Amino acid sequence: MALLMTASVGAGCRRDVGSLVVPHESAVAMTGGSNTSMIYVARTTEGVLAIDLGWWGHKGALAPALSAIGATAQDVRWVFLTHSHRDHIAAWPTVRHAMFYLGAPEQSLLVRTSSHRGWIPRWTEWLKSSVVPRPGQLDLRSFAQDTAVVIGADTIRAYLVPGHTPGSVVYLFRGVLFLGDAVTWSRRNGFAPARHGYSDDPRAGAINLERLWTRLPAGSVRYACTAHARCARFTPGFQADAAR
After folding, report:
1. C-alpha span between 174 and 162 (Å, rounded)
2. Across the chain, which distance is largest between two alpha carbons, in Å?
3. What CATH number is given for 6-242 in this structure?
4. Beta-carbon count within 10 A of 141 CB
5. In this structure, is the dihedral angle defined by the CA atoms of residues 218, 18, 89 and 9, taken in order, positive or negative?
C-alpha cells in the first residue's frame, strides 16, 4: 500500500508523490527550484533502478531516497531518462556506473554533440553550460521504437513521444506512467502538452502525445506523473486534459 508523502524543496514548493512511494520498495527525491525536478528510485529483485536524475540539490536529495529503500548510489544498476534537458540529468556522475536507457535521438543531445532547439534550453546553456557526460563515458542503451525492458520480476515499458525533445520517452512501471515533460502542469491550465519555449517541436509533441494513449496496455495505468512531480489518477479525463 502506497504511503502518502508530500516532499518539498524550497519555500512554498510542495508536490504530492504518494502514488510513487512504497515503504522499502520505492521512493522519490525532489531536486531543483520552484519547478521541482523528480528522481524516482525503486528496488527490484535484481537491483535498483532510477527514472530521471533531477537537477541542483540532487546530492542531498538522492541519498535519503535511496536509504529509504535500503540502498546506496552504488546499488543503482539502471537509469531510464525521459529526456536530456539539464534539469533531469544532473545526478549522472553519482550513478555513472549504471546502464543508461534513453530514446535514440537523445544520445547526441545528452553528450551535447548536438543541441536542443527550444529557445529556453539553448539560452540557459549559453548562459551557463551544464555538466554532461563525454561521448563514451556512460553505458548508453538507446531504442528507436517502443520497447520493454525486463528486470527480474518487473517490466518497464518505454514509449517514444518525440516533440518536447527528439527522443522524449514516457515510461510505464508498476502502474505509474512517468510522462517526463511530454505533459506539463500549471495552476491555470492543469495538465497540458509540453510548453513551447522549452520544446523542440511542440506541435509534434502534442500530436504524438495524443497517439500515446492507444498504445498503452488496457488497464495497465493507475497513476500518471510529470517529471516535475505533478501526479494524478489516470482516467479518460486525464487523457483529455493532457491532450488539450
Report:
1. 23
2. 45
3. 3.60.15.10
4. 16
5. positive
pTM score of the predicted model = 0.93
Label residue 60 exposed, middle or buried (CB < 10 Å: 0-12, 13-18, 19+): exposed
18 CB-near residues (< 8 Å, 6+ apart)? 2, 3, 4, 5, 6, 231
Cα gap 17→21, rounded to integer Å: 7
Chain Cα centroid distance, residue 155: 17
Taking only the tens of pLDDT, the chain with its 244 residues reads 233 233 333 323 346 788 899 999 999 999 987 789 999 999 999 999 999 999 999 999 999 999 999 999 999 999 999 999 999 999 999 999 999 999 999 999 999 999 999 999 999 999 999 999 999 999 999 999 999 999 999 999 999 999 999 999 999 999 999 999 999 998 888 898 998 999 999 999 999 999 999 999 999 999 999 999 999 999 888 888 887 7
Cα–Cα distance for residue pair 31/111, rounded to 1 Å: 21
